[in-house]
Amino acid sequence: MNKEQLFKIAYDSILECNEDKALQVIRDAQANNLNLIELLSMGFSAGIRELGDLFGRGEIFLPELIYSTEVMKIATAAIEANIGVSDIPKKGKMVIGTVAGDVHDIGKGIVCSLVKSNGIEVIDLGREVPALTFVEKAEEYAADFIGSSALLTTTMTEQKKIEDILRKEGLRNKYKTLVGGAPVTKRWAEKIGADAYCEDASDTVHMILGWVAKK
Amino acid sequence: MNSMERIVLTLQHKEADRVPVYPLLNSVSRKATGITYEEWSKDAKKCAESIIKATEEIGADCICTLVDLSVEAADWGQEIVYHDDSAANPAMNNRCIKNADEYSTIEIINPRETPRMSEHIELARLLYEAKGQEMPIIGFVFGPLGILSMMRGQEEMFMDLIKCPDKMQIALRNITETLKEFCAALIESGCHAIMFDTLYASRTIMSAKMWDANEGIYIQELCEFVREKGAMVMLHNCGAGIYFKEQIERMHPVAISFQHIPFDCTDMDDVKAKYGDQVTLIGHIEPGFVFTATEEELREMCRKQLDAYKKGGGYILATGCEYPASMDFEFAKVIVDEAKNYGKYA
């Protein structure tokens, strides 16, 4: 099998949510001495990017997206186990979490998967993350982007706290901040001074890649 | 004209004295009595007292029994976490359905005897006794798929919907049978209508086909059951891209409470034109907008929606989902004020 054929199989394995196919093509790529980073980028990641676009256009839905991102995680882990995480080039770094008081993280999980698949290193802080932790972790990991998700009107105010802390600490221009979640709006992002409102995972990817391109 | 008369005319797609109004006053009502969210969620008497006080103070035209989305799941044994200032939620790391094989452990239960559903039935009774002659009391019931996701976890359930949907059907069947009895008890307690929350029937979550195969068939049975018991069917769905057409086909609701423009509509005028004569529209000011708007902006939004929907009846001015639990009552009063003044019929 040539390189393009292997890329296509990897790509298809994501679109078809086919874990077995994904793992088999990694073995086939190794047998053919194909660079696994290339397979990840040109095959699997291309698949997940397409999936994100299909989701953005409403042509596939959340269950399919979640299932495929699971396959992507498995494929990525298998490749990382073979080559070492540090070998994979990154375009930037993002810390992300669901804000304090909020336990919902399904959307945030999808954002993590899609952003990661697009070459951004993601530090997932999990659920119920205090505002100060977002900032501390961004500093600790030397992140470029801070993403926060709030699924309740009662927790949206935590996103404002992140902005307030960044301003107070003189760090506001060091990071690009992104806010999302069901009750969150563009208007809210503007009101609190966040850099972007992201409607969904696909939107987040485009926003970040846009910033990366301008760097 | 009292609220009951106003809403009855509205549901008949006739113009009453003004557009009825209901800013989904649920958990925020706890502020009327100064109790915590947990007390409000667990104690039917305190909850009823709060809702009645808030409804009277704000001047809403109906009452809905929505407490939180964990009411039903709790009674199948799902561990629930309660908070002082936000809604109860399932313990995310301790779902009662831990793998797909455990769907078969979900049996039919008696909601009249289980803790949270029986409290909910009692809440409906108290609300009906206090206000049921002057305004509609709407029993709120989470749909089968929503309940199942509280017990299994959304992410896991979504994957099961692709991997092994057949395994889920026994649980969905038993939840449906239990909900029939729950609805019957709510109706006996005085509820004039049952409002089903079909959370997943929207394009941003799953395909219409997947929803129909896994909830549509069950919700149809439930709606037919409710009508046989003499109550009306309503539905609430605050998802973006809500499926109106598919849900109307299955449920034949008299009213739909919604937050976003339906999937097959372009704008408010289109919603009115396509669906205004089929269902009463309840909505759809976004709570997120209420949270960030100025009073003037909120009034403007109310007027925009009243302009689009009020003609010929069949419209209740409302928030698209629960009024923000962290706010005070002032903006709810603004919404009511707009219905009372700008929403007047000539």
Structure report:
The complex is a heterodimer of chains A (215) and B (346). Chain A contains nine helices and five strands. With 215 residues, chain A is an alpha/beta fold. Chain A folds into two domains: 3-87, Methyltransferase, Methionine Synthase (B12-binding Domains), Chain A, domain 1; 92-214, Cobalamin-binding domain (Rossmann fold). The N and C termini of chain A lie far apart (38 Å). Chain B has a single domain (3-341), classed as TIM Barrel (Alpha-Beta Barrel). In chain B, helix 9 (208-228) links the parallel strand 6 and strand 7 (232-237). The longest helix of chain B is centred in the middle third of the chain and has 24 residues, at 165-188. The radius of gyration of chain B is 19 Å and the shape is globular. The A-B interface holds A 17, 58, 61-64, 66-67, 70, 101, 103, 105-106, 109, 127, 152-157, 182-185, 187-188, 191, 200 and B 81, 83, 85-87, 89, 92, 154-155, 158-159, 161-163, 203-207, 210, 241, 286-289, 291-292, 324-327.
Entry keywords:
heterodimer, A: 215 residues, alpha/beta, Methyltransferase, Methionine Synthase (B12-binding Domains), Chain A, domain 1, Rossmann fold, 2 domains, 9 helices, 5 strands, 11% strand, B: 346 residues, TIM Barrel, eight-stranded parallel sheet, 12% strand, globular
Please sum up the structure shown.
By secondary structure, chain A is of the alpha/beta class. Chain A contains nine helices and five strands; from the N terminus they run H-H-H-H-E-H-E-H-E-H-E-H-E-H. Chain A has a five-stranded parallel β-sheet, with helices on both faces.
In terms of DSSP E residues, the strand content of chain A is 5-15%
CATH architecture of the largest domain in chain A: 3-Layer(aba) Sandwich
Judging from the principal axes of the Cα atoms, what is the shape of chain B?
Answer: globular
Major protein interface: A-B, 29 and 31 residues
Q: Strands across the major sheet of chain A, in which order?
A: 2-1-3-4-5
Question: Radius of gyration of chain A, rounded?
Answer: 18 Å
Give the tally of structural domains of chain B.
1
Describe the biggest sheet of chain A?
5 strands, parallel
CATH class categorisation of the largest domain in chain A = Alpha Beta
CATH superfamily of the largest domain in chain A: Cobalamin-binding domain
Quantity of strands of chain B, as a count: 10
Please give the CATH architecture of chain B. Answer: Alpha-Beta Barrel
Number of helices of chain B: 14
